[in-house]
Amino acid sequence: MSGQNNGKQTEIEVRGLNLWYGNNHALHNISIDIPKNSVTALIGPSGCGKSTFLRCLNRMNDLVKNCRIEGNVRIDDKDIYSKEVDVVDLRKRVGMVFQKPNPFPMSIRDNIAYGPKIHGFSKNEIDSIIEDALRSGALWDEVADRLSTSALNLSGGQQQRLCIARTLAVKPEVILFDEPCSALDPISTSKIEELIMELKKKYTIVIVTHNMQQAARISDNTAFFLTGDLIEYGKTDQIFENPKMKPTEDYITGRFG
Amino acid sequence: MSNRKYQEKAIESLLCLSGVTAVVILFLICIFLFRDGLALFQNYSFIDFLIGTKWYPTSQPNQFGLLPLLFGSIIVTFGAIIFSVPLGIAVAIYIAELAGEKEADVLKPLVEILAGIPSVVYGFFGLVVLVPLLQNILDLPTGQTALAGSIMLGIMALPTIISMSEDAISSVPRSIKDGSLALGSTEWQTINKVILPAALSGISAAVMLGIGRAIGETMTVMMVTGNTAIIPGFPDGLFVPVRTMTATIALEMGEVPQGSEHFYALFAIGSVLFITTFITNIVAEYIKKKYKFNMGAGQ
Fold this sequence. Notes:
The structure holds two protein chains of two kinds.
Chain A (H helix, E strand, L loop, with lengths): L1 E2 L6 E12 L2 E12 L3 E5 L6 H7 L10 E9 L2 E2 L7 H7 E4 L10 H11 L4 H14 L3 H4 L12 H13 L5 E5 L7 H14 L4 E5 L3 H7 L2 E6 L2 E7 H6 L4 H7 L5
Parallel strand pairs in A: 1-3, 4-9, 4-10, 7-8, 8-9
Antiparallel strand pairs in A: 2-3, 2-5, 5-6, 10-11
Helix pairs in contact in A: 3-4, 3-6, 4-6, 6-7
Chain B lengths: L1 H38 L6 H6 L3 E2 L6 E2 L2 H32 L2 H16 L2 H20 L7 H25 L3 H9 L4 H30 L2 H6 L20 H8 L8 H30 L9
Antiparallel strand pairs in B: 1-2
């Protein structure tokens, strides 16, 4: 089925997206419009294809062997799978935060500086980017006095916010979150959620989550995936209070998953 | 029931005994090596041994200067490092990061085979192929030079450096690599700026062990370096014959009368070698342990 958004300008437009891992047809004809400056949650049971779909949006699936993709994905009205697109530029525009915090084994400062450095920002620019990114990542106050210590000494929640700040430092338009809180405790989780709510003012956010309360709390729109199909997509309130499809209702009321 | 218990106990003791035996053998070797090595210094000055520049073991009076042999070993090893470290790390990067699964499956066993070739075969190859080649290309009076030894030792150290570096590189978590790529870095930027620094400790340990291997190697260097006990200059010393500590022991041990000063001098050299490789190994282990890649408390 195709999902239409509600009024806001569309940032990501997907039409007829099919994906195969070898012979395994993992995504079936997905069409969806994701609006700008909003949070869109992708929910569904394990193996439903929501993470796979997310990874189509910054072409991380390119790294998977035997992965074949058909269909059309447009971000900011540019086809990201066209031959002219440099995947490096794409990933600069579409950042990603992973399930487990994955800071680089280097200092906090170098973690943030890494992205801007490879994209050719000057040293002076990078210094101000570091502070901006850490402030936007709600981490500055906690680490300002120890920027040159190893990022691996931070707590899990701090590491994840560092990874978010690292993503912000390359100035993306879209940020993809792949279950960013699944390895974190409740307090760290709520901090990340607050941060995401704040970030949607400037960025378009797509988040995969297993946690339905989380989807209900932070997202504007919700898409429900099941066994590689997009079953239902709409306003989060509507999906949770008044789902149109039977499987959606079964899932959100906890009958399976 | 108690029968089974005895069986368990017996097997445990047997295994424990085997472990103890290995340690005892090491200690016995140490004791004999150092005892006979130290025996030299009853009649010969320790300082003369340590800073002597001449190795004339059979002249009158005898001169047992360590330096020509030590520098022989050092220059050959140094050359081997220059040659094998960049090549070894490059191969490791290729196998771990760039090669497809099939290529890696072919390459890895081939590298292992390189480690299994007997050193005398390397020496033979060096003698009949490399030595004449160097002589012709570089227009030297003889091709039996430190350089020939360096190249052969470099080849022999490659398997150690490649396998261990490859392990170190492969053990950098996939998530780190994904994180870097997701920021819009290229494959090479990711390898160069993220993966290699993360694997640096393992790679350093690999290099140390490769060096250890090169210093201790005997047969190959003896066959290709010409064995002239003169302190080599640098870097022109690479193009003249040299003699390493190991080759000296191997060449002379068969001919010395047991219990003579010369005999003890060879043991003294053996002790120096032992200490050198021992330290190299300890340092390698230390680096490996201390900086073992660790995702920290957050994971």
